[in-house]
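Predicting structure from sequence has reshaped protein science. With that in mind, we have picked out one protein's residues alongside their backbone shape tokens:
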Amino acid sequence: MKTIYIFGTGGFAKEVYFLIHEINKKKPTFKVGGFIDIKPTIQEINIGVNKFEVFEEQTFFKNSTSENKCLAIGIGNPKILNSIKDKYLSRYEFPNLIHPSVIGLFETIKMGEGNIVTAGCIFTLDILIGSLNIFNLHTTLGHDSTIGDCNVINPGVNISGGVVIGNNNLLGTNSTILQYIKIGNNNLIGAGAMLNTNIENNKVAVGLPAKEIKENK
């Protein structure tokens, strides 16, 4: 059993703890060793009767080796995920954490490292996924789609077949991406939006249908 440490101390970090708990119910795989934060404001996190230490990032990695340790992302911010990727992905193991309820023809799905796939998601087939992506509750991902790295896909997002999504994007809750749409890098798609045209880089798009309203800085 490997010891796993979760980046983040907020609500989504607790959701990742729950995901690990559900994976362990099916097959004991991970022991949670604690949480990691850039500048911790708390020293421990209580989950039920269990208490977990919060480690300051710089101190943790200064005193840590990768032996028998692995990491999970519990932060829903693409820029921070990209920073984690640059600093640690080549040095530490980031297992893909997939809730047992997730449906997909996984022999046709290629996936990088460190992806978080929570309960109720549906991935169909012939899908290519990069690393350090978050697929939150009840996301659907259609056939022949391609997802890059460090994307945060919030609950209830519907990604249709043939969609191509780059890196460091945030897709708001219950948004819809229609078939064969291409999304570049560093974009924000608003909650409930319906995107039916391509979008390049560094944009905020909202509405039905979604329109670009400003730069995503």
Remarks:
- The chain has a mean pLDDT of 95.
- The helical segments are 11-26, 57-62, 78-88.
